[in-house]
Amino acid sequence: MRDLEMARGFFEHAWAGSEGEVRRFLAAELMTLVDPIDNLGRWLEVTQERRRLATDPARRAQLDYELARAHLDLADDRDSARACALACLEAAPQHGPALELLSRVDGSAGPELAEAFRREAATYSDPAARADAW
């Protein structure tokens, strides 16, 4: 336990003056060291920064989903959970867990699901492929 506290302290200290790739690395490490149940505010801050620094759209979508889940399950903040789940679906229209989370938030993900399918279908130029996607 003491080693974990020392590691967290080291990464927190390094985080304060970091930027770019170093900050992205530190955010990933801190996200694993900060327990969202014990310190939700700090976990959300680190995860939001990690999401901001992510260059891969799939990784950003996954982080949006993780933020949505934490907002809903740990903070009972439905508005923030919904916003993060919708951001996830913007990048990954068929992200099943985000759709399921929206159904928990709203009781139904119907409109978001339809919009996700419309966005996905719009990416196809061939009419037959578009119809299949829809």
The CATH topology of the domain at 57-125 corresponds to Serine Threonine Protein Phosphatase 5, Tetratricopeptide repeat
Fraction in beta strands:
under 5%
Please report the number of helical segments. 8
CATH hierarchy, class of the domain at 57-125:
Mainly Alpha
**What's the order of the H and E elements?**
HHHHHHHH
Shape: flat
**What can be said about the biggest beta sheet?**
none
> How much helical structure, as a percent, in the residues?
over 70%
Output the radius of gyration: 18 Å
Give the end-to-end Cα distance, rounded to a whole number of Å: 51 Å
Would you identify the regions where 5 or more consecutive residues have pLDDT less than 50? none
Structural class: mainly alpha
Can you give a write-up of this model?
- The protein has helices spanning 2-16, 20-33, 40-53, 57-73, 78-91, 96-106, 110-122, 127-133.
- The mean pLDDT is 84.
- The protein is an all-alpha fold and 134 residues long.
- It is built from eight helices and no strands.
- It has a domain at 57-125: Serine Threonine Protein Phosphatase 5, Tetratricopeptide repeat, CATH 1.25.40.
